[in-house]
């Protein structure tokens, strides 16, 4: 018996739509479904914004400036439009949003299975079973850290952490730290650990370099203003690659013009190539550091050049230049693991669909979907990278995607149910 | 109009390459290839390698003919110099792979190449292979590849083609990243 069973629409049973997850994506589509008069429920394993409460480090701020933060029926109107929201501020915002939109949420309701029965979905939870015509997966793209297989080769004496375990430098044992990964996470943790006086080696594979500010504006202003954030998934040449891109080397802070490998090197970090394996007491790195840095520099220059076209037209201040990434003639190929007490895997995240008993996953365990419309009628997803647009993975990017999905979903619900023969 | 009116860009069949990529995405087993070489000792440091068969697309395949390679060492190594040293073949492999990649990537990007030339240099300290200093590795300390490219494209676009070629190069990967090598003796 659910403790919320006195609220009729939240009681397990037959319903039009089940939304799984009460993060920004689930709340956004709930608002839009509510506005369209669609009967639905939002099932949340923990509390609203659960991942933000439990799976993020203390100093984390959003990569997007406050002015850009928006959800259906909500736009930021606080007094720090150019600031970057902390995690606790974001949790408050989502709590308020859930309350204001009167989202029909059942908290503490972990979904253990979704399966197709006749032409409906049976959603089994710890608080009963829902039988829905449509299901929206809003559980996010970052349910578990993606740790490479080579992690198992590390000596047992080395503490291994993921971004889910890391809270602050105190989470990391004294001694040398090897950070694997050069995305926003890897660079932010490296910066924080260097400031705490730690000995840091950062292993960098392919990465996305960009300055925080450019020609007087936040880089996200330009990326939106130039149409990059609104670019459709249908126009992207190599969509699989686009969806795999690591997060840009940014931090939500105005302290630095650019957070990049040059800056970390100046702070005392050792930069190595991609981590390949642990062997013979050594961590081994790829000899391709020079090329991954050259690729990142070329791509950043291409981005800035594209911005320049618009910025010149707008009469924006003169373009800043950013020095090419400095790579030693002889970059580190191996590191004695005697000098490493901990390894942080900043190697990205993966979604968890272990509870999804519908045949919609590809051989890599990713959902087969066309812009969020999953390969099984009535099943939808939200909040994946480059799902419908470049901005899909950002909070401000959910509104347009959720609106498209809500419209498609309403169309699906109003199509008469075919009789199963 | 002749039958073969449209020449292939850079002599690369881009359509076929893209078609193969698409087809193999649906057939992971067909993408599993095995490359082979046979080698036989001749005399001294001279050996001969032969290459013809390989496995791919689910079945045995053959080059149009057998290719033969002599390897040896120069006379200053008290050898007869019947062929390049094995380490020089590594440079041949790297250059061949990167240049093929440059032609393909450029063709795919609509860049016409007029000339692509590379010089390669690899540093090696013989203290390693001679066992004089245990801290010196046997292999190269580093490899430098210098390209001179004449093409119908900007400096940045050429740099991007060369970078992309490295990113997709098998030999670049084999050299820059660890590879397990198993050597067995047949009974």
Overview of this protein structure:
- The complex is a heterodimer of chains A (421) and B (187).
- Chain A is of the alpha/beta class and 421 residues long.
- Helices cover 25% and strands 20% of the residues of chain A.
- Chain A has helices spanning 24-35, 50-54, 87-100, 184-195, 219-225, 239-244, 261-266, 289-314, 398-414; strands at 14-20, 40-43, 70-71, 74-75, 105-106, 111-117, 120-125, 128-137, 144-145, 159-161, 177-180, 200-203, 213-214, 217-218, 270-272, 275-279, 282-285, 334-336, 342-345, 349-350, 369-370, 373-374, 379-381.
- In chain A, strands 1, 2, 5, 6, 7, 8 and 23 form a 7-stranded mixed beta sheet that branches.
- The longest helix of chain A has 26 residues, at 289-314.
- The model of chain A is unreliable at 1-8 (pLDDT under 50).
- By secondary structure, chain B is an alpha+beta fold.
- Chain B has 4 helices and 5 strands.
- The longest helix of chain B has 23 residues, at 86-108.
- The termini of chain B are far apart.
- Classes of the chains: A alpha/beta (421), B alpha+beta (187).
- Chain A binds chain B through residues 206, 273-274, 276-277, 279, 284, 286-288, 291-292, 294-295, 298, 301-302, 329-330, 363, and chain B through 28, 141-142, 156, 159-160, 163-164, 166-167, 172-173, 175-178.
List keywords for this structure.
heterodimer; A: 421 residues; alpha/beta; FAD/NAD(P)-binding domain; 7-stranded mixed sheet; 5-stranded parallel sheet; 9 helices; 23 strands; disordered N terminus; B: 187 residues; alpha+beta; GMP Synthetase, Chain A, domain 3; 2 domains; 3-stranded antiparallel sheet; two-stranded antiparallel sheet; 4 helices; globular
